[in-house]
């Protein structure tokens, strides 16, 4: 599959202009991760191609169409999905995400696609100080994530999750601080603090 040209500062080309059965254009991007099936069994996977609404996944495990799974992709984090078809090499999923999370996902995929070609780096506007200690983050749906603080700064912090990890774009609350998840890699994720009144 030919990789489409994607602007480093815009995710609009991840939206397919053609009125076909795929609303969002797939890009060839290999991301490693794991999938939890309906029995909570854990399986290693890697993406063949991916968009902000779904992915083709290579895996020895091939769930049946209609199965509900949880995907954990390095650099993207956790996303719920429905299996839409299965084949000899793996299976395809449709992501169960809200529109604003799809936008965040499109932005992140754009960055991942361009980071090596354009020598992009994650921007940090404040020096981070290494620290350590347990923490509990609360997601928008009220669920909690147990984790360990890795470092903090005036603008954000990073954590290592004990088990589940949030997804890029998720809004989390820790203590009286509200933040947005901006990076995820395996069980390590970073948040950017959100100011009062910021959407």
Question: What keywords describe this structure?
Answer:
199 residues, mainly beta, Thrombin, subunit H, 2 domains, six-stranded antiparallel beta barrel, six-stranded antiparallel barrel, 1 helix, 43% strand, globular
Give the structure's gist in a few sentences:
With 199 residues, this protein is mainly beta. It has one helix at residues 99-115; strands at residues 32-36, 42-50, 54-58, 68-73, 77-86, 90-95, 129-139, 144-152, 156-161, 171-174, 177-185, 188-193. 9% of the residues lie in helices and 43% in strands.
Describe this structure in words.
With 199 residues, the protein is mostly beta strands. The protein is built from one helix and twelve strands. The chain has one helix at 99-115, and strands at 32-36, 42-50, 54-58, 68-73, 77-86, 90-95, 129-139, 144-152, 156-161, 171-174, 177-185, 188-193. Strands 1-2-3-6-5-4 form a six-stranded antiparallel β-barrel. The chain has a six-stranded antiparallel β-barrel with strand order 7-8-9-12-11-10. The longest helix is centred in the middle third of the chain and has 17 residues, at 99-115. The protein is globular, with a radius of gyration of 17 Å.
Task: Return the CATH topology of the largest domain.
Answer: Thrombin, subunit H
Total domain count = 2
Relative helix content: under 10%
Strand order of the largest sheet: 1-2-3-6-5-4
Tell me the overall shape.
Answer: globular
CATH architecture of the largest domain, by name, is Beta Barrel
Radius of gyration: 17 Å
Query: Which CATH class of the largest domain is shown?
Result: Mainly Beta
Query: How far do the termini sit from each other?
Result: 37 Å
Total beta strands: 12
CATH-level-4 superfamily name of the largest domain = predicted glycosyltransferase like domains
Low-confidence stretches: 1-22
Mean pLDDT: 80
Query: N-to-C SSE series?
Result: EEEEEEHEEEEEE
Sketch the major β-sheet: 6 strands, antiparallel, barrel
- The number of helices is 1
Structural class: mainly beta
């Amino acid at each position: 599959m030919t990789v489409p040209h994607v602007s480093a500062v815009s995710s609009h080309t991840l939206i397919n202009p053609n009125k076909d059965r795929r609303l969002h254009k797939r890009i060839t991007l290999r991301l490693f991760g794991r999938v939890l099936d309906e029995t909570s069994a854990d399986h290693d996977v890697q993406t063949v191609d991916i968009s902000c609404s779904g992915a083709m996944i290579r895996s020895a495990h091939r769930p049946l169409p209609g199965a509900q799974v949880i995907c954990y992709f390095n650099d993207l984090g956790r996303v719920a999905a429905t299996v839409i078809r299965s084949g000899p090499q793996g299976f395809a999923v449709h992501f169960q995400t809200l529109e604003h999370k799809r936008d965040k996902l499109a932005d992140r995929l754009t960055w991942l696609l361009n980071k090596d070609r354009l020598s992009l780096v994650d921007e940090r506007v404040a020096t981070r100080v290494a620290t350590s200690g347990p923490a509990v983050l609360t997601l928008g749906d009220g669920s909690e994530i147990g984790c360990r603080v890795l470092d903090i700064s005036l603008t954000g912090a990073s954590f290592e999750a004990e088990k589940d990890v949030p997804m890029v774009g998720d809004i989390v609350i820790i203590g009286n601080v509200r933040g947005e998840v901006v990076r995820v890699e395996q069980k390590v994720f970073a948040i950017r603090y959100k100011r009062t009144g910021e959407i």
